[in-house]
Known about the structure:
The chain contains 9 helices and 16 strands. By secondary structure, the chain is α/β, with parallel strands linked by helices. The mean pLDDT is 96.
Amino acid sequence: MMRAAYITETGPPESIKLGERPKPEPGPGQVLVRVAATAFNPLDLYLRGGMVAMPIPMPYIVGSDLAGTVEAVGPGARRFRPGDRVFGSNQGILGRQGVTAEYAAVDEDYLYATPSALTDQGAAALALVGITAHLGLFQFGRLRSGETVYVPGGTGGVGSMVVQMAKIAGARVATSAGGPEGVAMASALGADLALDYKVEDVPARLRDFAPDGVDVWFETQREPDFEVSIPLLRRRGRMIVTAGRTAKPVFPLGPFYTQDRSLLGFAMFNATPDEQRVCGDDIARWAAAGNLKPHIGRVFPFDEAAAAQRLLEDNTMHRAGTLRGKVVIAIA
């Protein structure tokens, strides 16, 4: 048996229980990971709350990101050996069991080697948001050195990854955050221009920063304002959207198509394991070199998983403004 944070029916964060569950056995192509840390994402909230129509096994262990050490390998698993440190994502979705537990059986295709320079908590914090930022910037956004990137919310989970990865790629990066502390954090992450959206005229400052327009706009907000953002794109600029399941914003078609602009939406979990491995390997390489750093907002003990999801929900869905960075659970 093992300890796990799980639900028996969908509901609010307080539905999460901490109790005993059977310790899993690694199946074909899987490894058994002794979990040291997990991290929560908005998708975890939607699944726990029943807001996304996706099959989940009941009882359902919450969480999709993990980091830890390989305990055992299943038949046919060849990429890792017992004792290897690994991190990964894509668990707890599409019928797979979640990972906020002492052990998790995970397909080795969704795991990556954790560099020695990275803690388990840091590795868990990089997983889903790092993969999402990488896919958006490079697979969909086709970012090239010398281009200009703007990402609102540069101190958030995905936003902080976009800022750092875009700088690694040689881009000029602008972002926005709320208040002086957020602006200072965004600047420390490497942003060339960090704006306080509460007091500054963001569109005017962006026009000064990029007179010809932004090449890649990585939208992280659930209710984007296309009437503001589309005219700020460069000719043939690309806008990436990854949030806003129920959003129905007004869309200015004229300024969009007459300038050859593109709107690209994607969900990280649609990417194949091979596509995600490109991201995971780059994340590990950049973290090992000290160029990519996790942005952790709060670490909770194992028995406070419900409180951790409540904090994330208050900030993700209700804009409480009390969290910058990732919510991490320390398992060991």
